[in-house]
Specification:
By secondary structure, this protein is an all-beta fold. The protein is built from no helices and 11 strands.
Length: 115
Amino acid sequence: MKPKFTNLVRRGHHVYGLDEGVLTCVNLESGNREWKEGRYGHGQILLVDDLLLIQAESGDVVLVEISPEKPQQRTKFQALQGKTWNNPVLLRDLLLVRNDHEAACYRLPLNASQQ
C-alpha cells in the first residue's frame, strides 16, 4: 500500500487506507488485498466505529461503511472548495475541516454509540 502522506487505520485483521488515492483493504494475516475501489485522491481518513470518514483531496467528506467484503458509501458532501490535504478532526458529532483557504464545522448525524 502506498498511502503517500495519509494515515492507515486498522480494524481487526484488516488495514484500510488510500493506496495512491484509491480506498483499499488489506488482510494483515495473509497480506492479500481484499478490495480496492473509490477514488478520493490524497486525502485523509479517520476510523469511527465501522465507518471511515474520508476527507477527500477534492474537499468532499465521505462516510464509508467498511468491511473486508466491500465498502459501502453512506454519504458524501462538498465540505471545502479546492485541494484539501489537512487532517479532519471529529469531536463527538462535530467535524472540523480546513485547507489553506477556509475552515468549516459540520454536525454529523452519527449514531449515539459513535458519539
